[in-house]
Amino acid sequence: MAKHNCAICGAEVGLLSEQKLADGNFICRKVCSKKTFKIFDKVHATLDDVNAHIAQIEKGTKIWNEVFVPLQKTKNKEEKLKQIHGLKGVLGYVSPSTGLMAFIENRYKIFIFGKSTLACVYRVADLYGYDYECETKKDSEGKEINVHYCTFLFRNTTGMYAPRIELGSSADYAQIEKYFNTLFGIQKTLRNSVNNAKRQLDAIKAAANAVKGAVDGTLDEAQAADAVGAMDASVYGDRTQWIAKADAALKPYQ
Ligand SMILES: [Zn+2]
Known about the structure:
Blueprint: E1 4-5, E2 12-13, E3 18-20, E4 26-28, H1 47-72, E5 82-83, E6 90-95, E7 100-108, E8 115-123, E9 127-138, E10 144-154, E11 164-167, H2 170-183, H3 193-216, H4 221-236, H5 240-250
Antiparallel strand pairs: 1-2, 3-4, 5-6, 6-7, 7-8, 9-10, 10-11
This protein binds zinc ion (ZN).
């Protein structure tokens, strides 16, 4: 039987104690694998991805303890955390006052009382997707059940940038979608279409100017960036305030 060495700690691993990564490296299940979130997809990750994810957890856990934990007890309404509804195993929290959000995994110790919490912290401004997925699985009695997920997608993020979170029901997803659409001012209903139409008009105007510039041969980079920015705002909402808040909150951790 071929023996390998853990690419992180160097421990010798075998068939039962190794986790193979996408780039052919192996890591040990006993120590190094446990430094990652259970939902982190190691099979499709390279060693660089795993190391980036471990660094993300080290930094995230520090920010969780210093920023989020005190806010869990706040009496100030503006600073309250929003727990994302209906998550299993991994819990999600949004901190609108700091522009940050976190996913946490609690590790319960068996012999020592208490728990330890691992966290990945993200900038709300980087959240560019929250999509619903449903899979049919067989439960322990062989009965088919629907399992509901929300896949969050973060830009500008290394490590775990697309956490896929299991939900209790599709109604839980509807709540998550509504919450973030509201947070970003993304309106999908006709009732709010005035705001939306104005934003789309801005986007179209900016794009038209950029195209005109390209035809005239006078397209400059600022104009092109304006066009992309306006398009983004019409689809994803205006992120300016979310960027500013997160920059301020993360300053001590740069
Ligand atoms: Zn190891």
